[in-house]
Amino acid sequence: MITFIPRDKVSKNWIIIAPILSIVFTIFFGLLIFTFLGYNPLETLYQIFVSPFSRIDRISDILVKACPLIIIGTGLMLCFKSNVWNIGAEGQFIMGALLAGFIALSFPNIETKFFLLITILAGFVGGALWAFIPAILKTKLNVNEILVSLMLVYVAMLFIDFIVRGPLRDPMSFGFPLSKPYPDGALINKIPFPGIGFLGQLHYGILFVLLLIPVSWIFVNKTLGGFKINVLGSAPQAAKFAGFKQNSITITVLLLSGGLAGVAGVIEVSANIGQLQPEVSFGYGFTAIIVAFLGRLTPVGILFAGIIIATVKLGADNAQMTMGIPKVVTGLFEGILLFFLLTGETLQKYKIKWSEGKK
Amino acid sequence: MDALVLTIIATSIPLLLAATGELIAEKSGVLNLGVEGMMLSGAVGALGAVLWLENPYYGIVAGALSGVLMASIFSIFTINFMTNQVATGLGLTIFATGLTGLAGAPLVGKTITSLPKIEIFLLSDIPVVGSILFKQDFVAYLSIAIIIYISFFLKYSKSGIILRAVGDDHQSAHSVGYPVKKIRWYATCFGGMCAGIGGAYIPLVLTPHWSEGMTAGRGWIALALVVFASWVPWRIIVGALIFGGITIAQLVGQARGWPIPSQLLSMMPYIATIIALTMISGRLSKNNSAVPSSLGKPFFGSQ
């Protein structure tokens, strides 16, 4: 029989050990399942975890893929910290990209890169507005934000599909469901390295991440707003007695996370696609949930977590090409990883005690 | 007309089953957001079993077992390791999406035989009602039986009352000597079984082949249905039929060429879910006795 005994204080070692152990366990169980289903475990291991590092341009593609995950994950961190369960980042990402795309396509001749400030702002507004729906329903009518934000993902996916096949379709697209290409001013360029040229798809959008991590760190650790979020999440009663307004915190974190997801959408489309298409997200919004937890709901942690998860995503792409393993298999690893991370959280607060005999 | 009603009923069965199972889990205090994942597992399990054993009834069994397997994973983590239920449920859905994608890959392009209809002697000859109510498949009858059974179970049986007590106040239930964790394990696994059968119904009756993520959000709608029904079993039937109706209405609309873009029609079930949740949640105050008070809270044992 196993019993759990509360620790006197949160174990510091576990904060570092838990994520590492989780990854080890995840790889072990993932490979067990692969073997069981008849795939070569060692080759899978190589494709998913090693092949993304095999060339310098592949490494830079990891950063490109990590970029939206880190941006969305940082927003979700604020929600999850304050016990608000926004799981609709995927929809907010799409709506951000769509609103920014609409503005970009309204100015077909614009060339100045300052225009990017406007499209990114539009992306923030688009995502935040989409997150405002669960926010207002939650705070005014006590409607479950989990279900509303998720339902809105399906609505957003259908909506962008409708817009791109209908009103915003490029008449010159030869029947493909694509919008016109963005004007130069709305495109995010690749970064040229002197003497090397471009490194894979590495683009200037990465600068936003480099800005976001310190800003969010300061917000969470050094401001009153961040303090309120921490208290609300870890000690809701204390937050109540301190007079923190739970509703306004709920609305704020949902707007911020929706907005950040929207910005991620703008960067992704402006840097990698250059026009609107029926599918723009490929599950970043859902994957970012795992990123936020793997990063232990801290900005720096999320930076690393984004890179780790992006590696697995790229590895899965490689595994699909070389071994015919379906790409969705990353979900398998993400799910197991989340289970173990959450278990790690329990073990941080409790000691395990093995005892003999009956319950 | 008969055909239309039959399609609506068929569409609502997976929702009905999954929501009923989740209702029992929630009544015991467990919020399992992995319904979508358990349904997907049920679907892929059923497809595999039918292709292998060539009998659609094994599909039901395999679906139920797959659902229970997923629910067991959820239970180990949330009940024994006391992890956060919301996050674990999300994890379960993400995990199952990956697992079923992998397990379903070899099944792509293969079609299975559907579950046969069972005509009930004499009753099926009643005009109109007969062909709608008494010419259904086994799972349809089963789902109604389950609803009736759990209605009585929750209200009149001793076990049902204990289950509700565990969901309402696990500390007190524990002090009186009921095995909180064990009861939650059973309730969660029952939820998994129902979701698994509901998922199995999708390939067994609705679309007889595998495609990734074929449940298309039904698990999430089922979760919403539990709230919509305010945790009262028979109201799930009403809710499921309404959602079945909306889903079919938009399909009919697309087929008949209504002057509304198909994507906007396809949004209807999801928007309807939000509207339904909004209408019900406004009325359900936080202290409503229908909502299990310990819902979503982990039980730490006696320490």
Summary keywords:
heterodimer; A: 359 residues; mainly alpha; ABC transporter involved in vitamin B12 uptake, BtuC; two-stranded antiparallel ribbon; two-stranded antiparallel sheet; 68% helix; 6% strand; B: 303 residues; 13 helices; 2 strands; globular
Helix/strand layout:
The complex is a heterodimer of chains A (359) and B (303).
Chain A: E1 2-6, H1 12-36, H2 41-50, H3 56-81, H4 89-106, H5 115-141, H6 145-165, E2 190-193, E3 197-203, H7 206-222, H8 224-234, H9 236-241, H10 246-273, H11 284-294, H12 299-323, H13 330-349, E4 350-354
Antiparallel strand pairs in A: 1-4, 2-3
Helix pairs in contact in A: 1-2, 1-13, 2-12, 3-7, 3-8, 3-10, 3-11, 3-12, 4-5, 4-6, 4-10, 4-11, 5-6, 5-10, 7-8, 11-12, 11-13
Chain B: H1 2-27, H2 35-53, H3 56-80, H4 85-104, E1 117-119, H5 129-133, E2 135-137, H6 138-156, H7 158-168, H8 170-176, H9 180-206, H10 218-228, H11 233-255, H12 262-266, H13 268-283
Antiparallel strand pairs in B: 1-2
Helix pairs in contact in B: 1-6, 1-9, 1-10, 1-11, 2-3, 2-4, 2-9, 2-10, 3-4, 3-9, 6-7, 7-8, 10-11, 10-13, 11-13
Extract low-pLDDT stretches of chain B.
Answer: none
CATH A-level architecture of chain B: Orthogonal Bundle
State the total count of DSSP E strands of chain A. Answer: 4
Q: What are the secondary-structure elements of chain B, in order, as H or E?
A: HHHHEHEHHHHHHHH
> What separation lies between the terminal Cα atoms of chain A?
7 Å
Structural class of chain A: mainly alpha
Helix content of chain A: 55-70%
Helix percentage range of chain B: over 70%
Gross geometry of chain A: globular
- Care to count the β-strands of chain B? 2
Strands side by side in the biggest sheet of chain A: 1-4
- In CATH, the topology of chain B is named ABC transporter involved in vitamin B12 uptake, BtuC
- Provide the low-confidence segments of chain A as ranges: none
Mean pLDDT of chain A: 88
Could you tell me how far the N terminus lies from the C terminus of chain B, measured between alpha carbons in angstroms? 61 Å
How many separate helices of chain A?
13
CATH topology of the largest domain in chain A: ABC transporter involved in vitamin B12 uptake, BtuC
Major sheet characteristics of chain A: 2 strands, antiparallel
Overall tally of domains of chain B? 1
